[in-house]
Amino acid sequence: MEMIAKALAEGRNTLSEYESKQVLSAYGIPVTREVLVNDIQGLVGAAADIGYPLVLKGCSSDIAHKTEKGLIRVDIRNEAEAKSAFGEIVANMGPGAAVLVQEMVKGQRELVIGLTRDPQFGPCVMFGLGGIFTEILKDISFRVAPLEKRDALEMMHDIKGHKILEAVRGMEAADLDIFSDILIKVGQIGLENDAVKEIDINPVIISGSKPVAVDALVVLEQGKE
Length: 225
Fold this sequence. Notes:
This protein has 225 residues and is an alpha+beta fold.
């Protein structure tokens, strides 16, 4: 894949959030509507296209933890707030900074979907509770790629918190067909791109009934094409 080949040629081991989501999107995985900008003019245009409320994030291939570094601003409601947030993020990142202007996806349920390349079994797909609960609860399930729909549905049922996918507290049941498709396609990315070492999509937010990849990181391995 061209974007992966370019990153490897540049000696990089990670894709930026924007690049990572471009890879996901190329495989038909639903991601947030977003535009990468470098200046105020680009910011204003992107905000007009996407509409408020917005999320702004510092975007670079060498940033893994944006929140800790003060590179994320959420629930931006107007142009004045957007310009202020843009200035703060750029100041924290330094010259040549790129900022991701992103739709704010509303939803209370957060999941994680990922991929790890096991030395013995090859690409393994992961599903579990996401957001801040990923590391706290470690409620996850794994399957070896390639996945069929049956495997994907079993994975989702395997986690202890599987009821989060059902209709609960006035929220719609999650669309398991779309979730299954995402899990199958994440496995496909690993099978078709040997250089992809890991994929971390966290959170996947359920908006209404539909899952949307809100943040993503693709980790590469040099020497593999």
